[in-house]
Structure formats: C-alpha cells, structure tokens
Amino acid sequence: MNKRFKMNFERDNVKRVRTSGQIIPLTRNQGFTLVEMVVVLSILGIAVAIAMPSFIRFVQNNRLATTANAFVGALNLARSEAITRGVTVTVCKSPDQIDCVANGDWAQGWIVFMDPDNDGEVADADDILRVYDGLPAPSTFVGTANVSNRVSYAPTGFPAVLSSGTVALTIGGRTINVVLNTTGRVRTDR
Fold this sequence. Notes:
Layout: E1 7-11, E2 14-19, E3 22-25, H1 34-85, E4 89-93, E5 110-114, E6 128-132, E7 140-143, E8 150-153, E9 165-171, E10 174-180, E11 186-189
Antiparallel strand pairs: 1-2, 2-3, 4-5, 4-8, 5-6, 7-9, 9-10, 10-11
C-alpha cells in the first residue's frame, strides 16, 4: 500500500490510522466477557449473603424502637392532654381505630381519646385525639394485668388506677418493655 493513504503510528499508546488526511483511532470493542461477569456476580452474591442477616436485624431493631417510641409518645400525649384539658384521657387497644376492645393485644393498634366519664369507652368520635395503626404479624405487644386493655390518666397526670404495669413488645425475637410506674411516668427497658 501507498504510505500516503494508510500509515499506522502510535500517539498516547493508541493506534491510529491516517486515511486521506483524517486520523481515525483504532480501538478494541469495549465490554465485559462472560467470565468477568460471572466473577463479579459471584463476588456480589457472596457480599449480599454476608450482609443480609445484619440488614434484617437492623430493620427489626429499627421497627422495635419506632413502635416502642410511638407507644411511649401515645402515653405521654394522654398524660399531657389529661392535665391540659382537665379530663381523663385514655389509651386503649383498638383494631378499627374507633372502639376499644378487651381481646387481643396492643399490636392490633391503639387510640388516644378523651374519656370524661372514665368508662374506658369512646363516647363520641370527636373525643379521639390520635390513632395508631396496628403492627404487622408476627409482632406481639402484650401488657400485664393493669395495662392489658387500657391506660387512663386523671386530670392530675397520675394514672386513673394507681398501679404500675409493663407492656412487652416483641418483634423478630427481640423484646423491649414499656414500663408505666405508679406516678404515670413511662420508660423503656430492654
């Protein structure tokens, strides 16, 4: 071939071809081979298998703490509203977020409502202050006898029934206790 029309030369370690005054780079097709893809996917699979149990534990711990904090927040809201409004305020189990129930556990959901007649029942839908949805199965949220169905706060901020109790929340084999003391203060305990 004539050197004028086709000449190979290297500049910056890239082969180029000059044809009729134009310089065209000669490059290989870029991409991955099947072997490279299999190796990368194998390493990725191993990394995911190692990280998954920790991630699941992280999600369960987060759900446990979030739910316990929501319940503590509901009890603190009830206590605060009882003092502010000067009426009894009750937190009770409620699967439909309208009426209180005596069966099941707290995992079905709960409501905070004004209870001026102190009977533990919602008299009017306008009395409901806040609604909390239930927890996904297989969560359990069981209270001791004093707090198994409801917790009521008197206008003084003390529990309407002066007794302590514990509600145990279990998600994924981990448990956190929400403890109510006789003065109405709430804390969590692992």
